[in-house]
Structure formats: C-alpha cells, structure tokens
Amino acid sequence: EIVMTQSPVTLSVSPGERVTLSCRASQSIRNKLAWYQQKPDQPPRVLIYDASTRAPGIPARFSGSGSGTEFTLTISSLQSEDFAVYYCQQYNDWPLLFTFGPGTKVDIK
Amino acid sequence: QVQLQESGPGLVKPSETLSLTCIVSGASISSHYWTWIRQPPGEGLEYIGYIYYNGRTNYNPSLRSRVTISEDTSKNQISLKLSSLTAADTAVYYCAKIRDGYNYVDYWGQGARVTVSS
Q: pLDDT of A69-83, one tens digit each?
C-alpha cells in the first residue's frame, strides 16, 4: 500500500505570503496526484489533478508540481479565503485503492 | 451540475449496521464511478470503496469484511452498509463522484455525520 505523508502539519502565514506545501509518496506514483482544499464543515474540493493541472474554476494562484514521489502545492499570494486544510491524494493504485495524505493546515499568523 | 445528497441515521449503536443512502442528480449512476469516503472528527480522509458500471465494486482492504456498496438505478442512488460498528467508525461519511478517466474526486456530497454510541 502506498503511504502518503505531508509537511508541515501546520503552517501559520499572513495574507499575501507565498505558501509551499509538500506531499511525499512511499513509492513512485508517476503524476497521479490530486490536491484538495477543505474548509470547516465543508467537503473537500479539488484544486489540482495529475500533479499540475488546475481543476476548472480554480484561481491561477494555485499551482502544483512534482512527479514520482515528491510533490508541491504552491499558493502564490495567500488570500483570506485560502485558510484551510490541504490534502494530497494518490490515485496511481487505481482501480484498487486511492489514499490521502494526513493534511496540512494553513492558518493565520 | 452533479449533486449528491447523503442521508441516514445520525446515531447508531455499537455492533449494529450503518446504512447510508446517496441520491444523485445531474448524472446517471450507471455511467460513472461513485465512491464513499469518511472522515473521523478532527482527522483526515479515508477511502471506503466504490461502485461502477453494473454494480461492480471495490473496497478498501482494511474495511472489506464489513462493507457493502450497492446501487439502485431506478432511484439513481447508491448505498453504503457498514457492519459491526465501533466508536472508531464515528465520522462524516461522504458520497462522491470520480472523474472519468482521471480518477480523482470531482463532486462531493455535503456529508452525513454518524456517531456510534450506546
């Protein structure tokens, strides 16, 4: 089973700052990675799929990169509505299984 | 626009079986993959399983012995049954759609909060 890890666990930032979140897979998942954003009492929403493709309607300040085992989500200039928990998810094991990382919480400094 | 709405009991007793339903609108359940994902309070997301074309299913190995996902095409809904419940099954249960050919989740329901307690 592929294990996903994310760092940091929590990130305290100020609006306008650049944010970089990391996600690592225990083995190569090629580019089969999605990033989701989740706000309190809401379901997640997809931001990025296939490691670097923005989902429809997602602002350009969100970008993804990486392949193999190391991935990054970057928010170029954090807006107030971006304070949330971010999860990565691998789907390289599909159709058998997909797994999520434990999440990174981005909160206000 | 695809919409998903979960429903079910908010409180279930230990050792009992949880039954949840997800009504889908805006898409035919016969044409896509549909998944259940859960999230314990304050924790991350866990894949439970999925159902696709003609009722074929796949389950997370860690839950396989207790899970059944089924469909009712006449009502355009999918269902989840989880047996032998314990407090560890307390979670928000999400019904979601998997994007064809890409395999990430593109639509989510609002979630059904389930507490397992006597």
A: 999 999 999 999 999
